Amino acid sequence: MFVTRPVTLSRTLTRFAATPSSSLASSSTAFAARLKKSTNITGLDVSTSPLAELESRFSKTLSLLTTLPESSVYRQATTALTQQRLDVVAKFSKQADAVKTNAEQLESLYRQAEEELDAGQLEQVLEQAVAEYRLAAKMVGWKA
Predict the structure, then answer these.
(1) pTM here?
(2) Which parts form a coiled-coil structure per UniProt (predicted)?
């Protein structure tokens, strides 16, 4: 019979993954309102500032992954994918800052980012990023 002990760090990281960043709340108000009204996916709401949210989530995931051993295959694969996605998001985020008051141009940038990421809608990519962060937090807990 296995005796399990609670991993406080893992639970804290999991709770942290579910809460939005306070810095996103202030940055999202500076952008024009989204023209997109629905993702057409039940239960998946339209994000008000998807690029900022993705950039924040990817950065947090990369930071968390550095706590895993460098030889970890999970760390290597996840770091490569997350860094590639972060680079794409950062590129479009800079462009979005330049046109943040023009909703049509913003939507166009969001569509271009979706095409370049090739992983569905930005809201779906955000869900994937949150799930990856939660898994990374569990991996850190399991390592301990």
Answers:
(1) 0.75
(2) 89-123
